[in-house]
Amino acid sequence: MKSFLKYTLATIVGVMIAGFLMTILSIGILSSLVSMSEKTVAIKDKTVLILRLEQQIVERTNKSPFSDLDLPGFSGTKEIGLDDILSCIQKAKTDNKIKGIYLNPSMVNAGLATVEEIRNALLDFKESGKFIYAYGEALSQKAYYLASVADQVVMNPKGMLELKGLSAQRLFFKNALEKVGIEMQVIRHGKFKAAVEPYLLEKMSPENRLQTEKYIGSLWSQMLEDISASRGISVERLNDLADGVTTFQLADYLLANGLVDSLKYKDQVIDDLKQLTRTRESKDVRSIDVDDYARVPAPTDGKGLARDKIAVIYASGGIDMPGSGTEGVDSEELSRAIRQARRDSSIKAIVLRINSPGGSAYGSEVIWREVKLAAETKPVVASMGDVAASGGYYIAAAADTILADRTTITGSIGIFGVIPNVGELMTDKLGITQDVVNTNAHSDILSLTRSLTNFEKALMQNYIEEGYRTFTGRVAEGRDMTMEAVDEVGQGRVWAGPDALEIGLVDQYGGVNDAIQLAKKLAGLDRYRIKSLPEIKDPFEEWLKEMSGSARMWLMQQELGEAYPVYQHLKRIKQTRGVLARMPYDIQLD
C-alpha cells in the first residue's frame, strides 16, 4: 500500500512538474513569436506586392502572431486588416523597390464596400505607372470586381469566373416557432424594419421587398459601372453575360467576351511577372505579401515624428450585442476612446470609422453623446464601411461630415423590441409548469413564459415611439433636417450609398483614406500621424486570459461530469434573462 501511494504521488508530482515546464516552454515560444512579429522587414529591388486576400478582411487586426496557430484559446480564423491593405497599396505606390502588384484573389471574404475601397486604392496606385497583374483560377463575383481593375486579367485555361448578379435571400421562422410553441412578441416603429419579419411573416412584406430590390439593384449597378469602365464592356452586355451565368462557361467563352485578356497556366504567369520586373530567367520573382510589407517602414520626410495627430476611432460590429465577440462595439469602451481623443490636445481631428448593423439603443445614445461633444471641439468625420445602419447611423449623425462608399448600406432609422414567450413550449411540449407570486400588478412584465397584457403592450409601444422620436431627433439635429423629413426617409428603411447621398443622409462618397484627408483639411494640418483607437489589447495578455478561462472550463467539466451541459444551459438562461431584464432600456436598433 505504501508503495502504491509512493508511486501515485510521484506520478502526480511528475505530471505537475511536466505541466509547469510545458507552460514555461510555451510562454517562451510565444514570447519569441511576439518579438519576431514586431521586427521590421527589409525588401530588395524588383519586388512584387502580392494581394491574395484569402483571409477574412476586417477593419483592423491586433497583429497577433498567434492568429495562424492552432493553440488553445484561439479560433484559428485568419484575418487581415483593411487598414494594412490600404496602407500597403499606398506605400507601394511610391516605393521604388515595388515594381507592381500581383492580384490573385478567389473568394474575397469581405463586404462589397470593403472591396470597393481596395479597388479604389488600386486605381490610385495605377497613377504611379506601375503594373497590376491579375490571375485567377476561380474568381468569385467580388473577386472579379476587384481583379477587373488590373492592366491584365489572366485566367487559367480551366478556370472559372462568376458573373450572375446579386441575390438577397431571407429565412422566415414564424411557422417553425409556432410548431414548437414559441411566441415572439414584437413592438416596433418602422414599416421597413425588416429585422423582425422572420418572426412575424412567411415571406417579405411589400415594404421589405421594395427596399431590398432598391438597394441590391443599386449595388449591382455600381459594380457593373466600375467593371464596364475598366474592361470596356457595356453595362448592357455585362447584364446579358450575367443572365447567361458565366460561372459554368468555359474559359474560352470568357476570353471571347472580353472578361479576361488571356488564358495561361501558372508557369506562364511567372514568366510574365519576370518580364514585367526584368527578372532574369534563372532567378525567382521577388515578392512580399501584405502581412510582411506592413512591417516595412514607410518613408519619412526627415522632419521627425509629427506632434499633431488624427484619431481614427473604429466602431466595428454590433453595439453592445451579447455574443458579438471581439468585433463587437462596447459602448463604454468606444465612448471612452472618443472622450480621450476629445481631451487630447495633440489630436486635432477625429475620423469615426463605422462598420456596424446597429444594436442597443441605449449604447448608441451613449456613443452619440460623445461624438456630439467631440464635434463641438474639433472636426469629426464619419466614415462608413460595408454597413452603417440603424445604431450604426445613429452614432454617425452628430459628425460634421459623413462619407460613405457607393456600395455602403446605411439608414435603417427605426427601432424595435422583441420579447419571446416560451410558455407553450415549456408547458404543453415539455411539461414544465411555473407558478408566480407578484407584489404588484406587473412585477413579471418581461416574463419569458406568458404573453404581454394589453396594458404592457401599450406601455412598451409608447417607449418604442419615444425611442424613435429620440432617434429621428438626433438625425434631424445632426443633418439639419426636420423630424418630418427624417421620418419620411426613416421608418427603418435601408438605403445604398447613392440613394443615401441623394436624400441627405451622407455628404459625399469616399473611404476611410478620403475621410482622413478631409479631416486633415478641416483641421488645417500639414503634417500629422494617425492614432488608432480604441487601443488594441495585447495579444499575449489576451491569450493568457483565454488560457485561464479554458482551464476554469476544464475543471468545471471534470467536477460536474454529465451535468456540465445542464450548467451551460442554466448559464445561458441567466445571461438571456439579464439582457431582457434591461429591457426596454436595451431595445434594438438593428
Low-confidence stretches: 33-37, 572-586
What's the Cα radius of gyration? 27 Å
Beta percentage is 15-25%
Proportion of helical residues:
40-55%
How many strand units? Answer: 20
Shape: globular
What's the mean pLDDT score? 87
Query: Which structural class should the secondary elements be placed in?
Result: alpha/beta
Any overview of this molecule?
The protein is an alpha/beta fold. The protein is built from 21 helices and 20 strands. Strands 10, 11, 13, 14, 15, 17, 18 and 19 form an eight-stranded mixed beta sheet that branches. A six-stranded parallel beta sheet has the order 8-6-5-4-1-9, with helices on both faces. It has a two-stranded parallel sheet with strand order 2-3. It starts with a helix and ends with a strand.
Briefly characterize the structure:
The chain is of the alpha/beta class and 590 residues long.
Any chance you could write out the topology, listing elements then pairs?
Layout: H1 2-37, E1 47-51, E2 56-58, E3 79-81, H2 82-94, E4 98-103, H3 112-126, E5 131-139, H4 141-147, E6 152-161, H5 174-180, E7 183-189, H6 197-200, H7 206-231, H8 235-243, H9 251-256, E8 262-263, H10 266-277, E9 286-289, H11 290-293, E10 309-316, H12 331-343, E11 347-356, E12 359-360, H13 361-375, E13 380-389, H14 391-394, E14 401-404, E15 409-411, E16 415-421, H15 423-429, H16 454-479, H17 483-489, E17 494-496, H18 497-502, E18 508-509, H19 512-523, E19 529-533, H20 539-560, H21 564-581, E20 588-589
Parallel strand pairs: 1-4, 1-9, 2-3, 4-5, 5-6, 6-8, 10-11, 10-19, 11-13, 13-14, 13-15, 14-18
Antiparallel strand pairs: 7-16, 12-20, 15-17
Helix pairs in contact: 2-3, 3-4, 12-13, 16-17
